[in-house]
Amino acid sequence: MNENSENSLIRMFHVYRRYGSKAALFDISLDIFKNEFIFITGPSGAGKSTLLKLLYLGEPASEGQILVDGINLSRISRNRIPLLRRKIGIIFQNFKLINSKTVFENIALVLEAAGKPRHFIQKKVATVLRAVGMEDRQNSFPLSLSGGEQQRVAIARAVAGDPIIILADEPTGSLDAESASQVTGLLKEFHIRGSTVIVATHDKEFIRKLNGRTVYLKQGRIHPPPALL
Amino acid sequence: MISLYFRHALRDIGKNRFVNAVSIITIALSVIITCSFILFFINTSDILTLWKKGVGIMAYLYQDVPAEKIPEIQKKIGGLYSVEDVRFISKEEAFDVLKQQMKRQSSLLENLKENPLPNAFEIRMIASSQTWEKVENLASQIKSIPQIEEVEYGQRWLARFSYIINLFKLSGYVLGILFSVASVFIVANTVRLVLYSRRDEIEIMRLVGASDRFIKVPFYIEGIILGALGGIIGLIVLFITFVSITSNIDQSITSGAFQIRFFSYTVMLIILISSMFVGWLGCFLSLKHIIKTV
Q1: Is pTM beyond 0.90 here?
Q2: DSSP per-residue letters across A147-203
Q3: Rg of chain B in Å (alpha carbons)
Q4: N or C: which end of chain A has fewer CB within 10 A?
Q5: Counting beta carbons within 10 angstroms of the beta carbon of residue A67, is it exposed (0 to 12), middle (13 to 18) or buried (19 or more)?
Q6: Do A115 and B1 touch (CB under 8 A)?
Q7: Best interface-test mutation with B: which of A57, A79, A96, A125 has the largest number of B CBs within 10 A?
Q8: What is the 3-state secondary structure (H, E, C) of A87-108?
Q9: Distance between CA atoms of residues B204 and A96, nearest Å
Q10: Looking at the partner chain, which of B1, B201, B207 has a beta carbon nearest the beta carbon of A85?
Q11: What is the ipTM of this complex?
Q12: Is residue A203 a contact partner of residue A175, using CB atoms and an 8 Å limit?
């Protein structure tokens, strides 16, 4: 244990993820600290998304230990998984908004699931929508929005529950340059406000703009980042 | 939280109108089919009960049996096993009853030179002995009395009818259970269709930290509401059909002795609760499967 380990929000010890005989992640050991901005980068298929999935238990690790805010994910019971996920705001490349629900309902869902009272939800949704500049679209349905707007709604949803960790899986992957820049700006802002942000991306422009630690994955293993990054 | 679950359930029913309408119709049809059987049984058992309470056997005397012999014969019949009560109906009394029953046509009887009807005994049996074999046995014992010309147990057809009814009853129970099980499966599959179309939604809900209960309860409420609507619609359709059929039946067929009846409020409540249970069970079975796989 080094002196920083006390500040570790996420600790991964010799983590493996295998699909049958094929391994997607090999022997990953990684500490992520409170209020850190960290990029998980690497070529396609390197295991970036898999690593994020392990953190929110989208998939279990095949071997090794993962601690998230003191919770050991290999020992967590099924009914405590929602509690873990409420500590984490997740942003996906394909937004994962519920198309049959309005923008307001999509964001309110996170707070309803956490058992927040109605008046609190009203206020909080308005606040996060204002933060992402979407306050006038709260009654729109996701499919009537542009990709950039949908991603801003997804970001609003991710931060609505005041998570201690924001995970973003290729958040700019399907956006045009301008929308990508807005999304980058928002993530930076939430980081400044105190969130730990973990972004899986191969968008070099994104990495250059934000001054964060970079973890480079290649074929499922952590490597030193190439010089061009 | 419950009001939140209710709001979610009602909103989701509104959003998936078509599939939910299919579920409601399925439950309504199951209610109609199963309850038609039950209604049929209730009313036919009424007829049987009436028969059991009513006249068991009529014994007719020869015309030439002297009046003073009658009390002796009555005593003899009364002493037979399983006889509860023997009543003498004189030929005059029978003639009067016939006249009354014929009403306007009674003038036909006035031309008769003599009363053609025989003296008779009406024999009622002890209720517990009214099995078909015992009725037959008693009838043959009465027939063996020399003064008795004929023994009639006119409800013979009813005995056969009761046999058929019992057969129907058995197949009715089996069919009722089959229909209930079938409707649970159909509802379960219909709900599964809804759930499959909402798989992504369920997955997203889980990713944003929704507990299993938060996801399941609105679906359960939805199932119960669909069940209740199906049950109510089924009962209304059944009632309308029942009224239109019974209004065409001449009440004189039943001699006013009993009323063809619909379900009591208690039975209707039981049917409603059962259909709500079926709706819930359908949801429960599908959700169990889907929640595991998402």
Answers
A1: no
A2: HHHHHHHHHHHHHHT--SEEEEESTTTTS-HHHHHHHHHHHHHHHHTT-EEEEE---
A3: 30
A4: N
A5: middle
A6: yes
A7: A96
A8: CEEEECCCCCCCCCCCHHHHHH
A9: 7
A10: B207
A11: 0.87
A12: no
- A100 interaction partners in chain B (CB closer than 8 Å): 15, 198, 201
Please report, as a single letter, which amino acid is at residue A191: H
Tens place of pLDDT per residue across chain A (229 aa):
444 556 789 999 999 999 988 889 999 999 999 999 999 999 988 999 999 999 999 999 999 999 999 999 999 998 899 999 999 999 998 899 999 899 999 999 999 999 999 999 999 999 999 989 999 999 999 999 999 999 999 999 999 999 999 999 999 888 888 888 888 888 888 899 888 999 999 888 888 888 789 999 999 999 988 765 5
Cβ neighbours for B279, distance < 8 A, ≥ 6 positions apart = B23, B27, B187, B223, B224, B225, B226, B227, B228, B230
**Chain A residues closer than 8 Å to B218 by CB:** none
Nearest-5° Cα angle at A110, A105 to A114: 130
Q: Which residues of A touch B201 (CB under 8 A)?
A: 98, 100-101
CB contact, 8 Å: B208 with chain A?
yes
Q: Which of residues 14-33 of B touch A (CB under 8 A)?
A: 15
Distance between CA B35 and CA B238 in Å, rounded?
8
CB A93 within 8 A of CB A169: yes
What 8-state DSSP symbol labels residue A12? E
In A, minimum Cα distance to B11 occurs at A101
- Angle between helix axes A177-192 and A147-160 (nearest 10 degrees) is 10
* CA separation for the pair B43, B21 (Å, rounded): 32
- Sheet containing strand A8-19, strands side by side: A22-33, A8-19, A63-68, A71-72
Give the Cα-Cα-Cα angle A126, A130, A132 (nearest 5 degrees).
125
CA distance B226 to B232: 10
> Is any Cβ of chain A less than 8 angstroms from the Cβ of B1?
yes
